[in-house]
User: Which sequence fits this backbone?
């Protein structure tokens, strides 16, 4: 029995060895780990157009700062990491080049351990990677570290010759020296295009009119010298991961911007209704659910701004960018932002940082571009949670401007359920208006915001009081004149919201007739009062109390 067992064992070993020899197989070894277990909670994407000139040996320089995880924004991460990947479906890692010594490459997971969360690293690109970056673009993932600055050696960061770009002046000084009164081209390029032409025609944009050179010429003659042009890219964007903007839409946007600049107006463009509601792609109520949602939305956000910034990189200082509009979870500052331990406020700050880093990375005049920042839902009450991003400007010049919107009280400013305003100084009986948000509340709000941001200008990106007919027009005039006068006192800029509304009542902000470029009938005294307050240097000038007709 024992002898037979030995013969069987010998035969088994012989067969096994023969099998290995004739099949060329080798005994298997345990495989090295390839699946990266790190849950990256920060992301920055750069479009492939930025890498058009990249070649072997070029460098990607990245500055990082501390960053918690999505659900715990203030958490301290002891082993921060970074990972460079292509912007493709697989997020293929860059591993053929070389990191600087302060970033230790991990061959198993193809990421890099940072010596500190706050440091500057470089990555030298291989020939194969240069080719792939031209084709795909770059995504930078972070864990415990957030990208604040990116510079590519293949991009020129010097001012563009022959353009009016101001390289040594702060936004605070520039706005104070050049602008008095702003106006919004609302319900035009911000239309969520759903028709056959997706908003390209007057019949399909919400204002039902096309912008013309005459419109901007008349705005200048009326006293407006800065135009905010809201832009929506929804329905003009291709599929992931490229999110290519329809080239015709960018041409259309540039045409409108050029018309305004031709009249020597300042211009501010943004991403507008892409994040206006919880069913749009830039949706903070979903971005705060998990890392995957946050990374996907932030990647798309970066891709859009990469392309927009690249398209306008040769424009001078009279063109400014604003990252986004009124981002909120659908409850206008009264939702989860009040109970989520700062998660949504943190996302707003991260998106402002990503916006800044992406615009600067495109180079050219964008290295000196003035940038507008909104806080949560563009509310002045949420601005205390806004943190200014780190910037790449080595000259120490502050090129940011902080924005908020003001229509308070809602019942008078937007809804038209209350017809009068001015209980504190305008001789309006308290019973005839809202209990709160009268003149003293406005002053207190503006005082508080001004105190928060002393080193950069503050601008009211939107303000207005809906038209309620001739009988109440003087209350509208009083509200707007009082607001502008006090904003000027606090050295704020302001942009009157105009949606070309021709009706009376809720959200009727049609101050300027888009077809003629003239002040709409019934609004003459209102527009005159706005710019009287905007240009007055008389400290004794007082706003006349309103009266009913």
Assistant:
């Amino acid at each position: 029995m024992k002898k037979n067992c030995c013969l069987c064992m010998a035969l088994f070993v012989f067969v096994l060895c023969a099998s290995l020899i004739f099949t060329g197989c080798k005994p298997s070894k345990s495989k090295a780990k390839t699946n990266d277990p790190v849950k990256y909670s920060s992301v920055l994407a750069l479009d492939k157009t930025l890498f058009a000139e990249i070649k072997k040996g070029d460098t990607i320089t990245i500055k990082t700062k501390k960053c918690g995880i999505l659900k715990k924004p203030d958490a301290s991460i002891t082993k921060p990491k970074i990972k460079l990947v292509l912007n493709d479906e697989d997020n293929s890692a860059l591993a053929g080049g070389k990191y600087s010594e302060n970033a230790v490459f991990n061959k198993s997971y193809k990421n890099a351990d940072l010596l500190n969360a706050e440091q500057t690293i470089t990555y030298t690109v291989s020939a194969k990677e240069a080719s792939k970056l031209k084709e795909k673009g770059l995504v930078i993932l972070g864990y415990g570290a957030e990208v604040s600055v990116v510079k590519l050696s293949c991009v020129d960061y010097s001012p563009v010759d022959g353009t009016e770009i101001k390289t040594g002046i702060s936004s605070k000084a520039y706005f104070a020296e050049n602008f008095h009164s702003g106006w919004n081209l609302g319900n035009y390029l911000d239309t969520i295009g759903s028709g056959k032409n997706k908003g390209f025609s007057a019949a399909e944009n919400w204002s039902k009119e096309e912008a013309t050179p005459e419109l901007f010429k008349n705005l200048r003659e009326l006293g407006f010298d800065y135009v905010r042009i809201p832009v929506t890219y929804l329905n003009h964007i291709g599929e992931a991961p490229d999110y290519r903007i329809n080239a015709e839409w960018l041409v259309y946007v540039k045409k409108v911007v050029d018309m305004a600049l031709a009249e020597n107006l300042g211009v501010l463009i943004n991403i507008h209704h892409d994040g206006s509601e919880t069913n749009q792609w830039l949706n903070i109520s979903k971005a705060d659910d998990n890392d995957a949602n946050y990374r996907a939305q932030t990647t798309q956000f970066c891709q859009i701004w990469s392309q927009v910034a690249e398209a306008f990189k040769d424009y001078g200082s009279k063109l400014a960018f604003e990252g986004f509009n009124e981002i909120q979870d659908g409850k206008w500052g009264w939702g989860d932002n009040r109970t989520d331990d700062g998660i949504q406020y943190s996302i707003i700050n991260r998106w402002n940082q990503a916006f800044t880093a992406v615009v600067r990375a495109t180079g050219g005049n964008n290295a000196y571009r003035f940038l507008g920042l909104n806080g949560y839902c563009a509310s002045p009450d949420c601005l205390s949670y806004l943190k200014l991003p780190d910037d790449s400007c080595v000259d120490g010049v502050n090129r940011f401007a902080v924005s908020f919107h003001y229509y308070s009280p809602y019942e008078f400013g937007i809804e038209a359920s209350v017809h009068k305003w001015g209980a504190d100084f305008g001789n309006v009986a308290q019973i005839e208006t809202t209990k709160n948000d009268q003149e003293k509340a406005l002053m207190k709000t503006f005082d508080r915001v001004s105190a928060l941001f002393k080193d950069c200008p503050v601008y009211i990106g939107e303000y207005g009081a809906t038209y309620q007919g001739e009988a109440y027009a003087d209350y509208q005039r009083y509200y707007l004149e009082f607001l502008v006068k006090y904003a000027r006192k606090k050295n704020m800029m302001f942009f009157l919201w105009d949606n070309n509304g021709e009706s009376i009542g809720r959200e009727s902000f049609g101050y300027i007739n888009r077809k003629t470029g003239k002040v709409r009938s019934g609004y003459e005294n209102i527009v005159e009062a706005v710019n009287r307050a905007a240009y007055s240097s008389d400290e004794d000038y007082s706003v006349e109390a309103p009266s009913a007709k």
Remarks:
- The chain has a mean pLDDT of 92.
- The first helix runs from residue 2 to 23.
- Residues 179 and 225 are 6 Å apart (CA to CA).
- The radius of gyration is 28 Å.
